[in-house]
Amino acid sequence: MREEWPPNSQKELDERLRSITATTDSFWRKLKGVIALVVVGWLLLLFGGSGLPNAQGEDTVFLMSPGFIIVAVLVLYLLAGLRIINQYERGVILTLGKYTGTRQPGLRWILLGVQRLIRVDLRIRVVDVPDQDCMTKDNVSVNVNAVLYYLISSAERAVLEVENFANAVSQLAQTTMRDVVGEVTLDDLLSNRDQVSKRIQEIVDKASDPWGIKVQSVDLKHIELPKDMKRTMGKEAEAERERRAVIIKSRGELSASDNLARAAANLAKSPGALHLRTLHSINDLSSDQSNTVVFAVPLEILRAIERVGGGTKTSSSDKA
User: Fold this and answer.
1) d(CA 283, CA 8)
2) Distance (Å, rounded) from C-alpha 152 to C-alpha 149?
3) Domain residue spans in the chain?
4) CATH fold group of domain 125-225
5) Quick check: helix, strand or coil at residue 271?
6) Whole-prediction pTM value?
């Protein structure tokens, strides 16, 4: 079955890279063993028996052929024990199953069959914490995933104290994330993601410290809410926006009413001010020919007519 490339996740990519690295290392080990066997066989055939015939027809025997074979085998054994440790690696040495030291970067040699070299990569590693179905403190089910960055601070402890430190860190991060999310409410989880991430980092770092692992950071990538909760939160946000709009509108109307009251008071102080305002409004409307102008008679005119009419009636009654 053909594998898809590129992989869908960082975790799958890391697994494939580790598989390729392990396959390559196994291939080179087998190749070196085959080369060593070929060289030893060639030396045995070349120096293990009689030599070439001389001029008298007698075989020329190499006097040092047994010793040379021993020396050749010893040289091959010494060469097979050479190991190269990269700058970003450390080599943990186990002699007959017991820890005897840590090798620094460079060309190192071990006793084949007696010692074993375990390489430990000290570069920062990335762990993609998969989706976890968590229950918050206010009983809301959410799916949370995160990414964790860590490095090896002690190569010997990473080898001796835990079987598979990469898998151990991943499992520890998953359980810790579920526990921390269960201690906070949904609102705190959404608004204080940095604090939740820092809390997860502190717990995982403290728990993995005996393994020689230092956790650099933990970041929550995505928080998946239930569909019903999304609709409810959308309605809540919409209602909140409507409330703010009504408040802002009412404040504007209140401010407008205060200004209108002051304007009316100022107009009432001058008898001709209202007429001038009316004429100014008519002038503004008459600038556009498509507008229909409805002339409104001011109340002051009607009141003046009433006063004139009332005074006429009073004078007529006095004459009668």
Assistant:
1) 72
2) 11
3) 1-80, 84-121, 125-225
4) Tetrahydropterin Synthase; Chain A (3.30.479)
5) coil
6) 0.58
